[in-house]
Specification:
With 237 residues, this protein is mainly β. It contains two helices and ten strands. The protein has an eight-stranded antiparallel beta sheet with strand order 1-2-3-4-5-6-9-10. A hairpin with a 3-residue loop joins strand 4 and strand 5. The longest helix is centred in the last third of the chain and has 9 residues.
């Protein structure tokens, strides 16, 4: 729903938009044959199998597959409101100032609810020059891959406990269905210049600062080993 709600403060009507939504994302990935049902074959270029270390022959082929049997789903319930409030408008419609306000609440199954919001000011100092500034809290929830995916691969890693000896290993990395959304605080200021003497010309300049918290990412195997060796209790087995 959207439309004017009041006559405003003399510079124009206040516009308001409201909305709500429900969404479900799900996936089902089937590997045939099931990865755990067959063993890793020996190298045989005639059938396209090569580069497998001898030590892994006979173990589960799941160690080298990026397509295991997987499934998962999550739902999102959202509600939002956005308003545009004109604050000033001169008699010749050359200079004006308006404020924008917006808020959104999203409830993700598995990780809970979170707010996002934005506040901004913009206005024309002259008919050709417009200034703008915004401050916002932005959010991003984990996608299906970051929640449910599982990857298996071989890698090499240094062991800092034994003189950085290099080993060939196999690792399994998985998502986290309960990972919380990441958050960012953003501040932006800018200017737009559209000279009336040159039809179609527009130039803009923006400066912004972004601070991210609780970023969703994944540590690589070597980072896990190095941090465990350094004493990070959270990564200890």
């Amino acid at each position: 729903m959207s439309g004017p709600v009041t006559a405003g403060f003399g510079a124009g009507p206040v516009l308001l938009a409201l909305g709500a939504s429900f969404r479900e994302d799900r996936f089902n990935q089937v590997a045939e044959p099931a990865d755990s049902s067959i063993a890793t074959p020996p190298n045989d270029p005639s059938i396209g199998v090569q580069g497998i270390p001898a030590a892994f022959v006979g173990s589960f082929v799941h160690q080298f597959s990026s397509f295991p049997n997987l499934h998962g789903a999550y739902t999102v319930k959202e509600a939002f409101a956005e308003a545009r409030v004109p604050l000033f408008n001169d008699a010749h419609n050359v200079r004006d100032v308006s404020m924008s306000l917006a808020a959104r609440y999203a409830d993700y199954s598995g990780s809970g609810g979170i707010w996002a919001w934005k506040a901004g000011l913009e206005g024309h100092l002259t008919a050709d020059l417009r200034l703008r500034a915004t401050v916002s809290r932005d959010t991003r929830a984990a996608n299906l891959s970051e929640r449910f995916d599982m990857q298996n691969r071989g890698f090499t890693a240094r062991d800092p406990l034994f003189g950085n000896t290099v080993y060939s290993l196999s690792a399994t990395s998985t998502g986290n269905p309960a990972v919380e959304p990441e958050k960012a605080d953003t501040f932006t200021v800018g200017a737009v210049y559209q000279p009336s003497q040159v039809d179609g010309l527009s130039m803009s300049l923006d400066w912004y600062s972004i601070s991210i918290r609780d970023a969703i990412s994944q540590l690589g195997p070597q980072a896990v080993i190095d941090n465990c060796f350094a004493g990070a209790a959270a990564l200890a087995p």
